[in-house]
Amino acid sequence: MVGEEVRYLNLRLWAARLLVAFLPDMAFARLRAFLYSLVGVKVGRGALVLGTLDLRGPGDAISRLSIGNRCMVNVPCFIDLNAPVTIGDEVNIGHHAVLITAKHLTGESIRRAGLLESAPIVLEPGCWLGARVTVLAGVTIGRGAVIAAGAVVTKDIPPNTLAGGVPARVIRELHERHNP
């Protein structure tokens, strides 16, 4: 029974959480990014991680996360690493974001949560996820796209668009330069 209980213990994820746990949120963001890189997360130059990330996944999950140059990841942030998550350069992620690479297929009526299926998530360079955005398995968010707060992204979002809603849909195109 003990073997079954510790079967999913992921020492690298545990070490990552331990390394950053005592750093206060919103402070030491560059140090925290560096500490994540020490345990195997690919972290680009100038990346900011504003608190402890909630990382989950089987096996060598931590190696499936890549954070690009000059990104900013706010917290709390839950990242499921059943499949790779690629966060491109200059991406900003708002607080309470959820990135989920796994989903259950619909099972029999006795247990509807069927077999697990996973697919990668890609956040292309320059995109911005607002607060409380959820991105589901297999989604690519295009370069320079903005996802409005509270959106649930279930399918790919084209580059340079504003998307929002549940499920998220394109609201309008964004110009290369924004003038207020």
Tell me the layout of helices and strands.
Elements: H1 2-6, H2 11-20, H3 29-38, E1 42-43, E2 48-49, E3 54-56, E4 65-67, E5 72-73, E6 77-80, E7 85-87, E8 92-93, E9 97-99, E10 102-106, E11 113-118, E12 121-123, E13 128-129, E14 134-135, E15 140-141, E16 146-147, E17 152-153, E18 161-164, E19 169-173
Parallel strand pairs: 1-4, 2-5, 3-6, 4-7, 5-8, 6-9, 7-12, 8-13, 9-14, 12-15, 13-16, 14-17, 16-18
Antiparallel strand pairs: 10-11, 18-19
Keywords:
single chain; 180 residues; alpha/beta; 7-stranded mixed beta sheet; 5-stranded parallel beta sheet; 19 strands; 14% helix; 32% strand
Task: Give an account of the 3D structure.
The chain has helices at 2-6, 11-20, 29-38, and strands at 42-43, 48-49, 54-56, 65-67, 72-73, 77-80, 85-87, 92-93, 97-99, 102-106, 113-118, 121-123, 128-129, 134-135, 140-141, 146-147, 152-153, 161-164, 169-173. With 180 residues, the chain is of the alpha/beta class. The protein has a 7-stranded mixed β-sheet. Strands 1-4-7-12-15 form a 5-stranded parallel β-sheet, covered by helices on one side. Strands 3-6-9-14-17 form a 5-stranded parallel β-sheet, with no helix packed on it. The longest helix has 10 residues, at 11-20. It is globular and about 55 Å long. It starts with a helix and ends in a 7-residue tail after the last strand.
Quick synopsis:
The chain has helices at residues 2-6, 11-20, 29-38, and strands at 42-43, 48-49, 54-56, 65-67, 72-73, 77-80, 85-87, 92-93, 97-99, 102-106, 113-118, 121-123, 128-129, 134-135, 140-141, 146-147, 152-153, 161-164, 169-173. The protein is α/β, with parallel strands linked by helices and 180 residues long. The protein has a seven-stranded mixed beta sheet.
